[in-house]
Amino acid sequence: MGKLIIVSNRVGSLKDTGKAGGLAVALVDVLRERGGVWFGWSGAVSDEGTFGEFKIERSKQVELVQLDINKADYDEYYAGYANRTLWPILHYRLDIAEFDRPFEEGYRRVNERFATRLKPLIKPDDLIWVHDYHFLPFASTLRAMGVENRIGFFLHIPFPSPDIITALPRHGALIRSMLAYDLIGFQTMRDRNHFIDYLVQEQGGRVVDDDVVSVYGREITVRAFPIGIDATGFATFPDSPEGKRQQQRIRQAQRDRAQIVGVDRIDYTKGIPHRFRGFERLLEEYPENRGRVTFLQIAPSSRSEVDAYADIQRELEGLAGQINGRFADVDWTPIRFIARGFPRKALAGIYRASRIGLVTPLRDGMNLVAKEYLAAQDPENPGVLVLSRFAGAAEELRESVIVNPYSAAEVAAALQTALQMPLDERKSRHALMFERIVRNDAHNWATRYIRALGG
Ligand SMILES: O=P(O)(O)OC[C@H]1O[C@H](O[C@H]2O[C@H](CO)[C@@H](O)[C@H](O)[C@H]2O)[C@H](O)[C@@H](O)[C@@H]1O
Ligand SMILES: O=c1ccn([C@@H]2O[C@H](COP(=O)(O)OP(=O)(O)O)[C@@H](O)[C@H]2O)c(=O)[nH]1
Protein backbone atom coordinates (compact mmCIF):
# COMPACT_ATOMS: atom_id res chain seq x y z
CA MET A 1 0.00 0.00 0.00
CA GLY A 2 1.44 3.35 -1.00
CA LYS A 3 1.24 6.46 1.10
CA LEU A 4 -1.57 8.99 1.08
CA ILE A 5 -0.80 12.45 -0.29
CA ILE A 6 -3.25 15.19 0.64
CA VAL A 7 -3.09 18.46 -1.29
CA SER A 8 -4.98 21.54 -0.07
CA ASN A 9 -4.49 25.27 0.12
CA ARG A 10 -4.47 25.27 3.94
CA VAL A 11 -2.52 22.54 5.68
CA GLY A 12 -3.45 21.15 9.13
CA SER A 13 -1.17 21.00 12.13
CA LEU A 14 0.57 18.15 13.95
CA LYS A 15 0.47 20.02 17.25
CA ASP A 16 -2.71 19.60 19.21
CA THR A 17 -3.17 23.29 19.85
CA GLY A 18 -6.96 22.94 20.05
CA LYS A 19 -7.11 25.53 17.29
CA ALA A 20 -7.21 23.11 14.35
CA GLY A 21 -10.67 22.28 13.08
CA GLY A 22 -12.12 18.75 13.27
CA LEU A 23 -11.42 18.26 9.60
CA ALA A 24 -7.71 18.99 9.96
CA VAL A 25 -7.54 16.65 12.96
CA ALA A 26 -9.34 13.86 11.07
CA LEU A 27 -7.05 14.15 8.06
CA VAL A 28 -3.95 14.05 10.26
CA ASP A 29 -5.40 10.89 11.92
CA VAL A 30 -5.89 9.21 8.57
CA LEU A 31 -2.36 10.19 7.52
CA ARG A 32 -1.04 8.70 10.78
CA GLU A 33 -2.83 5.40 10.10
CA ARG A 34 -1.35 4.76 6.68
CA GLY A 35 1.56 7.20 6.52
CA GLY A 36 1.58 10.14 4.22
CA VAL A 37 2.20 13.70 3.25
CA TRP A 38 0.00 16.81 3.53
CA PHE A 39 1.12 19.30 0.94
CA GLY A 40 0.00 22.90 0.46
CA TRP A 41 0.52 26.59 1.09
CA SER A 42 2.35 27.65 4.26
CA GLY A 43 0.09 30.70 4.64
CA ALA A 44 3.17 32.93 4.16
CA VAL A 45 3.99 35.27 1.30
CA SER A 46 7.71 35.63 0.45
CA ASP A 47 9.91 36.69 -2.46
CA GLU A 48 11.02 33.10 -3.23
CA GLY A 49 7.39 31.94 -3.21
CA THR A 50 6.88 28.47 -4.69
CA PHE A 51 10.57 28.33 -5.69
CA GLY A 52 11.65 28.52 -2.04
CA GLU A 53 12.59 25.77 0.40
CA PHE A 54 9.91 23.34 1.61
CA LYS A 55 8.80 24.01 5.17
CA ILE A 56 8.62 20.53 6.65
CA GLU A 57 7.11 19.27 9.90
CA ARG A 58 7.42 15.56 10.70
CA SER A 59 5.97 13.20 13.25
CA LYS A 60 6.32 9.43 12.88
CA GLN A 61 5.06 8.56 9.41
CA VAL A 62 3.37 11.90 8.70
CA GLU A 63 4.97 14.86 6.94
CA LEU A 64 3.50 18.30 6.44
CA VAL A 65 5.21 19.88 3.44
CA GLN A 66 4.45 23.53 2.80
CA LEU A 67 5.50 26.20 0.34
CA ASP A 68 5.26 29.96 0.41
CA ILE A 69 3.74 31.85 -2.46
CA ASN A 70 4.86 35.28 -3.68
CA LYS A 71 2.90 38.53 -3.68
CA ALA A 72 1.76 38.19 -7.32
CA ASP A 73 0.59 34.61 -6.64
CA TYR A 74 -1.30 35.76 -3.56
CA ASP A 75 -3.06 38.53 -5.49
CA GLU A 76 -3.82 36.52 -8.61
CA TYR A 77 -4.40 33.02 -7.19
CA TYR A 78 -5.72 33.22 -3.58
CA ALA A 79 -7.22 36.73 -3.39
CA GLY A 80 -7.77 36.72 -7.15
CA TYR A 81 -9.20 33.88 -9.20
CA ALA A 82 -9.97 31.61 -6.22
CA ASN A 83 -11.73 34.14 -4.00
CA ARG A 84 -12.89 36.85 -6.41
CA THR A 85 -14.10 34.62 -9.24
CA LEU A 86 -14.63 30.99 -8.22
CA TRP A 87 -15.84 31.51 -4.63
CA PRO A 88 -18.69 33.92 -5.50
CA ILE A 89 -19.79 32.03 -8.62
CA LEU A 90 -19.83 28.67 -6.86
CA HIS A 91 -21.85 30.32 -4.07
CA TYR A 92 -24.42 31.57 -6.64
CA ARG A 93 -23.26 35.22 -6.41
CA LEU A 94 -22.91 36.22 -10.07
CA ASP A 95 -23.63 39.81 -8.99
CA ILE A 96 -20.29 40.23 -7.18
CA ALA A 97 -18.00 37.88 -9.10
CA GLU A 98 -15.13 39.23 -11.22
CA PHE A 99 -15.49 37.84 -14.72
CA ASP A 100 -12.47 39.31 -16.47
CA ARG A 101 -9.84 37.36 -14.55
CA PRO A 102 -8.55 34.51 -16.72
CA PHE A 103 -7.65 31.36 -14.78
CA GLU A 104 -4.65 31.07 -17.04
CA GLU A 105 -3.11 33.92 -15.03
CA GLY A 106 -1.91 33.28 -11.47
CA TYR A 107 -4.32 30.46 -10.69
CA ARG A 108 -2.95 28.04 -13.27
CA ARG A 109 0.62 29.18 -12.57
CA VAL A 110 0.33 28.33 -8.87
CA ASN A 111 -1.33 24.98 -9.65
CA GLU A 112 1.53 24.15 -12.03
CA ARG A 113 4.27 25.19 -9.62
CA PHE A 114 2.76 23.27 -6.72
CA ALA A 115 2.38 20.20 -8.95
CA THR A 116 5.98 20.55 -10.15
CA ARG A 117 7.23 20.70 -6.56
CA LEU A 118 5.06 17.76 -5.48
CA LYS A 119 6.01 15.48 -8.40
CA PRO A 120 9.36 14.20 -6.98
CA LEU A 121 7.61 13.15 -3.74
CA ILE A 122 5.13 10.86 -5.56
CA LYS A 123 5.78 7.08 -5.66
CA PRO A 124 3.87 4.80 -8.07
CA ASP A 125 1.43 3.31 -5.46
CA ASP A 126 0.60 6.55 -3.69
CA LEU A 127 -2.98 7.80 -3.53
CA ILE A 128 -3.38 11.53 -4.13
CA TRP A 129 -6.34 13.39 -2.64
CA VAL A 130 -6.74 17.02 -3.74
CA HIS A 131 -9.04 19.42 -1.88
CA ASP A 132 -11.13 22.39 -2.86
CA TYR A 133 -11.61 25.12 -5.42
CA HIS A 134 -8.02 26.41 -5.21
CA PHE A 135 -6.82 23.30 -7.04
CA LEU A 136 -9.42 22.33 -9.66
CA PRO A 137 -6.83 21.76 -12.46
CA PHE A 138 -4.20 20.10 -10.22
CA ALA A 139 -4.66 16.54 -11.53
CA SER A 140 -4.52 17.59 -15.17
CA THR A 141 -1.20 19.30 -14.47
CA LEU A 142 0.14 16.16 -12.78
CA ARG A 143 -1.11 13.96 -15.65
CA ALA A 144 0.70 16.20 -18.15
CA MET A 145 3.88 15.42 -16.18
CA GLY A 146 3.25 11.69 -16.53
CA VAL A 147 1.69 10.94 -13.13
CA GLU A 148 -0.58 7.87 -13.47
CA ASN A 149 -1.57 7.38 -9.81
CA ARG A 150 -5.16 7.36 -8.62
CA ILE A 151 -6.08 11.00 -7.97
CA GLY A 152 -9.25 12.10 -6.20
CA PHE A 153 -10.79 15.52 -5.65
CA PHE A 154 -13.19 16.80 -3.00
CA LEU A 155 -15.00 20.13 -3.32
CA HIS A 156 -15.76 21.71 0.09
CA ILE A 157 -18.01 24.42 -1.32
CA PRO A 158 -21.26 24.19 -3.35
CA PHE A 159 -21.41 23.36 -7.03
CA PRO A 160 -24.25 25.32 -8.67
CA SER A 161 -26.49 24.30 -11.56
CA PRO A 162 -25.27 24.55 -15.17
CA ASP A 163 -27.26 27.80 -15.55
CA ILE A 164 -24.89 29.46 -13.10
CA ILE A 165 -21.62 27.70 -13.77
CA THR A 166 -21.86 28.49 -17.50
CA ALA A 167 -21.58 32.18 -16.59
CA LEU A 168 -17.92 31.50 -15.71
CA PRO A 169 -15.82 32.48 -18.72
CA ARG A 170 -14.00 29.44 -20.14
CA HIS A 171 -15.91 27.11 -17.84
CA GLY A 172 -15.50 24.35 -20.43
CA ALA A 173 -11.70 24.39 -20.29
CA LEU A 174 -11.58 24.61 -16.51
CA ILE A 175 -14.06 21.84 -15.86
CA ARG A 176 -12.61 19.61 -18.58
CA SER A 177 -9.34 19.86 -16.64
CA MET A 178 -11.15 18.22 -13.69
CA LEU A 179 -11.77 15.12 -15.77
CA ALA A 180 -8.20 14.04 -15.01
CA TYR A 181 -9.42 12.98 -11.53
CA ASP A 182 -10.61 9.41 -10.96
CA LEU A 183 -13.07 10.31 -8.21
CA ILE A 184 -14.81 13.66 -7.64
CA GLY A 185 -16.57 14.13 -4.30
CA PHE A 186 -19.14 16.74 -3.29
CA GLN A 187 -20.72 17.71 0.02
CA THR A 188 -24.32 17.00 -1.02
CA MET A 189 -26.42 15.14 -3.57
CA ARG A 190 -27.54 18.53 -4.87
CA ASP A 191 -23.95 19.53 -5.72
CA ARG A 192 -23.17 16.12 -7.20
CA ASN A 193 -26.29 16.21 -9.37
CA HIS A 194 -25.46 19.71 -10.62
CA PHE A 195 -21.98 18.55 -11.64
CA ILE A 196 -23.35 15.52 -13.48
CA ASP A 197 -25.99 17.73 -15.18
CA TYR A 198 -23.17 20.00 -16.31
CA LEU A 199 -21.13 17.11 -17.74
CA VAL A 200 -24.17 15.75 -19.56
CA GLN A 201 -25.50 19.08 -20.88
CA GLU A 202 -22.25 20.87 -21.66
CA GLN A 203 -19.59 18.21 -22.23
CA GLY A 204 -21.44 15.34 -23.90
CA GLY A 205 -21.12 13.13 -20.80
CA ARG A 206 -23.22 9.99 -20.30
CA VAL A 207 -24.20 8.42 -16.98
CA VAL A 208 -23.14 4.78 -17.35
CA ASP A 209 -23.71 3.55 -13.83
CA ASP A 210 -25.11 4.98 -10.61
CA ASP A 211 -22.15 7.22 -9.86
CA VAL A 212 -20.09 6.83 -13.00
CA VAL A 213 -20.02 9.28 -15.88
CA SER A 214 -18.36 8.52 -19.17
CA VAL A 215 -16.93 11.64 -20.77
CA TYR A 216 -14.24 12.13 -23.44
CA GLY A 217 -13.42 8.44 -23.22
CA ARG A 218 -12.79 8.48 -19.46
CA GLU A 219 -14.98 7.03 -16.70
CA ILE A 220 -15.16 9.20 -13.60
CA THR A 221 -16.90 8.43 -10.33
CA VAL A 222 -18.93 11.37 -9.03
CA ARG A 223 -20.39 10.95 -5.55
CA ALA A 224 -21.58 12.85 -2.46
CA PHE A 225 -19.50 12.49 0.72
CA PRO A 226 -20.99 14.88 3.30
CA ILE A 227 -18.16 15.94 5.56
CA GLY A 228 -18.31 15.25 9.31
CA ILE A 229 -16.73 16.50 12.53
CA ASP A 230 -15.16 14.60 15.43
CA ALA A 231 -18.58 14.56 17.12
CA THR A 232 -17.72 12.47 20.22
CA GLY A 233 -14.52 14.44 20.76
CA PHE A 234 -16.30 17.80 20.39
CA ALA A 235 -19.03 16.61 22.80
CA THR A 236 -16.41 16.55 25.57
CA PHE A 237 -15.25 20.15 24.93
CA PRO A 238 -18.02 21.93 26.93
CA ASP A 239 -16.68 20.13 30.02
CA SER A 240 -13.07 21.20 29.38
CA PRO A 241 -11.82 23.97 31.71
CA GLU A 242 -12.16 26.56 28.91
CA GLY A 243 -15.60 25.26 27.93
CA LYS A 244 -16.80 25.45 31.55
CA ARG A 245 -15.35 28.93 32.02
CA GLN A 246 -17.30 30.27 29.05
CA GLN A 247 -20.54 28.64 30.23
CA GLN A 248 -20.12 30.21 33.63
CA ARG A 249 -19.45 33.68 32.21
CA ILE A 250 -22.52 33.53 30.01
CA ARG A 251 -24.81 32.17 32.72
CA GLN A 252 -23.65 34.87 35.13
CA ALA A 253 -24.22 37.64 32.60
CA GLN A 254 -27.45 36.31 31.08
CA ARG A 255 -29.08 34.85 34.22
CA ASP A 256 -32.32 33.22 33.01
CA ARG A 257 -32.36 34.85 29.58
CA ALA A 258 -32.29 32.58 26.52
CA GLN A 259 -29.21 33.11 24.36
CA ILE A 260 -29.18 32.66 20.59
CA VAL A 261 -25.71 32.17 19.08
CA GLY A 262 -24.27 32.62 15.59
CA VAL A 263 -20.63 31.78 14.71
CA ASP A 264 -19.23 32.49 11.25
CA ARG A 265 -16.23 33.88 9.43
CA ILE A 266 -17.26 37.30 8.17
CA ASP A 267 -18.32 36.29 4.68
CA TYR A 268 -21.17 37.48 2.46
CA THR A 269 -22.19 33.84 1.97
CA LYS A 270 -23.04 33.43 5.65
CA GLY A 271 -26.11 35.69 5.62
CA ILE A 272 -25.19 37.52 8.84
CA PRO A 273 -26.99 40.83 8.06
CA HIS A 274 -30.14 38.89 7.09
CA ARG A 275 -29.87 37.03 10.39
CA PHE A 276 -29.67 40.32 12.34
CA ARG A 277 -32.88 41.42 10.61
CA GLY A 278 -34.52 38.10 11.44
CA PHE A 279 -33.71 38.66 15.12
CA GLU A 280 -35.03 42.22 14.91
CA ARG A 281 -38.28 40.85 13.46
CA LEU A 282 -38.55 38.43 16.38
CA LEU A 283 -38.46 41.39 18.79
CA GLU A 284 -40.99 43.27 16.68
CA GLU A 285 -43.51 40.49 16.14
CA TYR A 286 -43.15 38.51 19.36
CA PRO A 287 -42.64 41.30 21.94
CA GLU A 288 -42.77 38.85 24.85
CA ASN A 289 -39.11 38.11 23.99
CA ARG A 290 -37.96 41.68 24.71
CA GLY A 291 -35.71 41.65 27.75
CA ARG A 292 -35.76 37.82 27.79
CA VAL A 293 -33.73 36.78 24.75
CA THR A 294 -30.26 37.87 23.62
CA PHE A 295 -28.34 37.24 20.42
CA LEU A 296 -24.57 36.72 20.43
CA GLN A 297 -22.80 36.83 17.06
CA ILE A 298 -19.15 35.76 16.91
CA ALA A 299 -17.55 36.69 13.59
CA PRO A 300 -13.78 36.52 13.01
CA SER A 301 -12.62 38.51 10.01
CA SER A 302 -11.71 36.72 6.79
CA ARG A 303 -10.19 37.58 3.37
CA SER A 304 -10.51 41.27 4.16
CA GLU A 305 -8.26 42.24 1.22
CA VAL A 306 -11.08 41.17 -1.13
CA ASP A 307 -13.44 44.13 -1.67
CA ALA A 308 -16.66 42.19 -1.18
CA TYR A 309 -15.55 41.34 2.38
CA ALA A 310 -14.28 44.76 3.41
CA ASP A 311 -17.53 46.46 4.35
CA ILE A 312 -19.44 43.63 6.02
CA GLN A 313 -18.02 44.27 9.49
CA ARG A 314 -19.00 47.93 9.35
CA GLU A 315 -22.45 47.00 8.09
CA LEU A 316 -22.90 44.57 11.00
CA GLU A 317 -21.72 47.11 13.56
CA GLY A 318 -24.24 49.58 12.11
CA LEU A 319 -27.08 47.07 12.16
CA ALA A 320 -26.34 45.90 15.71
CA GLY A 321 -26.20 49.54 16.86
CA GLN A 322 -29.51 50.29 15.17
CA ILE A 323 -31.32 47.28 16.64
CA ASN A 324 -29.83 47.84 20.10
CA GLY A 325 -30.70 51.54 19.91
CA ARG A 326 -34.27 50.65 19.08
CA PHE A 327 -34.91 47.87 21.64
CA ALA A 328 -32.25 47.90 24.40
CA ASP A 329 -33.15 48.65 28.01
CA VAL A 330 -31.01 49.74 30.95
CA ASP A 331 -30.41 46.12 31.92
CA TRP A 332 -30.63 44.38 28.51
CA THR A 333 -28.59 44.58 25.31
CA PRO A 334 -30.34 42.56 22.58
CA ILE A 335 -27.31 41.96 20.28
CA ARG A 336 -23.67 41.38 21.24
CA PHE A 337 -21.46 41.43 18.15
CA ILE A 338 -17.88 40.19 18.61
CA ALA A 339 -15.70 40.65 15.54
CA ARG A 340 -12.97 38.17 16.50
CA GLY A 341 -12.51 34.43 16.75
CA PHE A 342 -12.55 32.04 19.73
CA PRO A 343 -10.72 28.71 20.19
CA ARG A 344 -12.97 25.72 19.59
CA LYS A 345 -13.09 24.62 23.25
CA ALA A 346 -14.37 28.07 24.19
CA LEU A 347 -16.91 27.91 21.36
CA ALA A 348 -18.14 24.56 22.69
CA GLY A 349 -18.91 26.16 26.08
CA ILE A 350 -20.66 29.07 24.34
CA TYR A 351 -22.75 26.65 22.25
CA ARG A 352 -23.71 24.68 25.39
CA ALA A 353 -24.89 27.84 27.12
CA SER A 354 -27.01 28.88 24.12
CA ARG A 355 -30.64 27.88 23.80
CA ILE A 356 -30.53 28.27 19.99
CA GLY A 357 -27.80 27.79 17.39
CA LEU A 358 -28.69 30.13 14.52
CA VAL A 359 -26.96 29.00 11.30
CA THR A 360 -28.41 30.82 8.32
CA PRO A 361 -25.97 30.99 5.38
CA LEU A 362 -27.33 32.05 2.01
CA ARG A 363 -25.17 29.22 0.59
CA ASP A 364 -22.64 26.98 2.30
CA GLY A 365 -20.81 23.83 1.26
CA MET A 366 -21.53 22.09 4.55
CA ASN A 367 -21.24 24.35 7.65
CA LEU A 368 -19.40 22.57 10.42
CA VAL A 369 -20.65 25.05 13.04
CA ALA A 370 -24.14 23.49 12.71
CA LYS A 371 -22.72 20.06 13.58
CA GLU A 372 -20.51 21.42 16.37
CA TYR A 373 -23.48 23.20 17.96
CA LEU A 374 -25.36 19.87 18.12
CA ALA A 375 -22.35 17.97 19.43
CA ALA A 376 -21.91 20.48 22.28
CA GLN A 377 -25.47 20.19 23.64
CA ASP A 378 -26.46 18.48 26.87
CA PRO A 379 -28.53 15.49 25.60
CA GLU A 380 -30.82 15.84 28.66
CA ASN A 381 -31.57 19.50 27.96
CA PRO A 382 -30.45 20.30 24.42
CA GLY A 383 -30.82 23.57 22.58
CA VAL A 384 -32.39 23.86 19.14
CA LEU A 385 -30.59 24.26 15.82
CA VAL A 386 -32.22 26.73 13.41
CA LEU A 387 -30.65 25.95 10.04
CA SER A 388 -30.74 27.45 6.54
CA ARG A 389 -32.09 25.20 3.83
CA PHE A 390 -29.13 26.40 1.74
CA ALA A 391 -26.41 24.96 4.01
CA GLY A 392 -25.12 21.57 2.85
CA ALA A 393 -25.74 20.37 6.41
CA ALA A 394 -29.52 20.69 5.87
CA GLU A 395 -29.50 17.48 3.78
CA GLU A 396 -28.51 15.49 6.88
CA LEU A 397 -29.85 17.59 9.76
CA ARG A 398 -33.50 17.26 8.85
CA GLU A 399 -34.74 17.48 12.45
CA SER A 400 -33.40 21.01 12.86
CA VAL A 401 -35.81 23.90 12.33
CA ILE A 402 -35.18 24.57 8.63
CA VAL A 403 -35.56 28.15 7.35
CA ASN A 404 -35.28 30.29 4.27
CA PRO A 405 -32.52 32.70 5.41
CA TYR A 406 -33.65 35.46 3.03
CA SER A 407 -36.98 35.86 4.84
CA ALA A 408 -36.78 37.83 8.10
CA ALA A 409 -40.35 36.78 8.90
CA GLU A 410 -39.48 33.09 8.47
CA VAL A 411 -36.35 33.39 10.59
CA ALA A 412 -38.34 35.17 13.32
CA ALA A 413 -41.06 32.48 13.27
CA ALA A 414 -38.42 29.72 13.40
CA LEU A 415 -36.77 31.39 16.40
CA GLN A 416 -40.13 31.62 18.15
CA THR A 417 -40.81 27.91 17.44
CA ALA A 418 -37.37 27.02 18.80
CA LEU A 419 -37.81 29.17 21.93
CA GLN A 420 -41.12 27.49 22.69
CA MET A 421 -40.15 23.93 21.82
CA PRO A 422 -40.96 21.50 24.66
CA LEU A 423 -38.13 19.51 26.26
CA ASP A 424 -39.30 16.12 24.89
CA GLU A 425 -39.27 17.37 21.34
CA ARG A 426 -35.89 19.04 21.78
CA LYS A 427 -34.47 15.78 23.14
CA SER A 428 -35.86 13.56 20.41
CA ARG A 429 -34.74 15.88 17.58
CA HIS A 430 -31.28 16.23 19.11
CA ALA A 431 -30.85 12.47 19.68
CA LEU A 432 -31.61 11.64 16.04
CA MET A 433 -29.19 14.24 14.69
CA PHE A 434 -26.43 13.50 17.22
CA GLU A 435 -26.56 9.80 16.35
CA ARG A 436 -26.19 10.73 12.67
CA ILE A 437 -23.22 13.07 13.15
CA VAL A 438 -21.47 10.43 15.26
CA ARG A 439 -22.06 7.79 12.59
CA ASN A 440 -20.76 10.04 9.81
CA ASP A 441 -17.92 11.66 11.72
CA ALA A 442 -14.80 13.17 10.14
CA HIS A 443 -12.86 9.94 10.42
CA ASN A 444 -15.57 7.86 8.72
CA TRP A 445 -15.90 10.51 6.05
CA ALA A 446 -12.19 10.40 5.21
CA THR A 447 -12.08 6.61 5.35
CA ARG A 448 -15.08 6.25 3.02
CA TYR A 449 -13.58 8.66 0.54
CA ILE A 450 -10.19 6.94 0.52
CA ARG A 451 -11.82 3.54 0.10
CA ALA A 452 -13.83 4.84 -2.87
CA LEU A 453 -10.59 6.17 -4.38
CA GLY A 454 -9.14 2.69 -4.15
CA GLY A 455 -7.11 2.98 -0.95
O1 LIG B 1 -8.77 29.34 4.01
P1 LIG B 1 -9.65 30.56 4.12
O2 LIG B 1 -9.70 31.37 2.85
O3 LIG B 1 -9.31 31.38 5.33
O4 LIG B 1 -11.17 30.05 4.36
C1 LIG B 1 -11.53 29.04 5.31
C2 LIG B 1 -12.10 27.80 4.62
O5 LIG B 1 -13.35 28.18 4.07
C3 LIG B 1 -14.03 27.21 3.26
O6 LIG B 1 -14.60 26.19 4.07
C4 LIG B 1 -15.43 25.20 3.49
O7 LIG B 1 -15.14 23.93 4.03
C5 LIG B 1 -15.87 23.52 5.18
C6 LIG B 1 -15.43 22.09 5.53
O8 LIG B 1 -15.71 21.20 4.48
C7 LIG B 1 -17.37 23.59 4.87
O9 LIG B 1 -18.13 23.17 6.02
C8 LIG B 1 -17.74 25.02 4.50
O10 LIG B 1 -19.13 25.05 4.13
C9 LIG B 1 -16.89 25.53 3.35
O11 LIG B 1 -17.14 26.92 3.20
C10 LIG B 1 -13.09 26.69 2.19
O12 LIG B 1 -13.75 25.71 1.37
C11 LIG B 1 -11.79 26.17 2.75
O13 LIG B 1 -10.91 25.75 1.70
C12 LIG B 1 -11.15 27.31 3.53
O14 LIG B 1 -9.93 26.87 4.10
O1 LIG C 1 -14.20 31.96 16.25
C1 LIG C 1 -14.20 30.92 15.60
C2 LIG C 1 -15.10 30.73 14.53
C3 LIG C 1 -15.06 29.51 13.83
N1 LIG C 1 -14.17 28.55 14.19
C4 LIG C 1 -14.18 27.23 13.49
O2 LIG C 1 -14.15 27.42 12.08
C5 LIG C 1 -14.85 26.36 11.44
C6 LIG C 1 -15.84 26.96 10.46
O3 LIG C 1 -16.25 25.95 9.59
P1 LIG C 1 -17.59 26.06 8.73
O4 LIG C 1 -17.68 24.80 7.95
O5 LIG C 1 -18.75 26.35 9.61
O6 LIG C 1 -17.39 27.32 7.77
P2 LIG C 1 -16.16 27.85 6.88
O7 LIG C 1 -15.55 28.97 7.66
O8 LIG C 1 -15.23 26.70 6.68
O9 LIG C 1 -16.80 28.35 5.63
C7 LIG C 1 -15.55 25.55 12.54
O10 LIG C 1 -14.82 24.36 12.79
C8 LIG C 1 -15.49 26.49 13.74
O11 LIG C 1 -15.42 25.85 14.99
C9 LIG C 1 -13.29 28.73 15.23
O12 LIG C 1 -12.50 27.83 15.55
N2 LIG C 1 -13.33 29.93 15.91
TrEMBL record:
Keyword Nucleus recorded: no
Pathway: Glycan biosynthesis; trehalose biosynthesis
SUPFAM superfamilies for the chain: UDP-Glycosyltransferase/glycogen phosphorylase
Domain of life: Bacteria
UniProt cross-references to InterPro entries, sorted A to Z: Glyco_trans_20, Trehalose_OtsA
Enzyme Commission code: 2.4.1.15
Any GO BP: trehalose biosynthetic process
GO MF, any single term: alpha,alpha-trehalose-phosphate synthase (UDP-forming) activity
Enzyme class: transferase
Pfam families cross-referenced by the UniProt entry: Glyco_transf_20 (PF00982)
Protein keywords: Glycosyltransferase, Transferase
Keyword set includes Transcription regulation: no
Reactions that this protein is recorded to catalyse: D-glucose 6-phosphate + UDP-alpha-D-glucose = alpha,alpha-trehalose 6-phosphate + UDP + H(+)
Function: Probably involved in the osmoprotection via the biosynthesis of trehalose. Catalyzes the transfer of glucose from UDP-alpha-D-glucose (UDP-Glc) to D-glucose 6-phosphate (Glc-6-P) to form trehalose-6-phosphate. Acts with retention of the anomeric configuration of the UDP-sugar donor.
Subunit structure: Homotetramer.
Family from the record: Belongs to the glycosyltransferase 20 family.
Protein name, as recorded: Trehalose-6-phosphate synthase
Organism: Methylobrevis albus
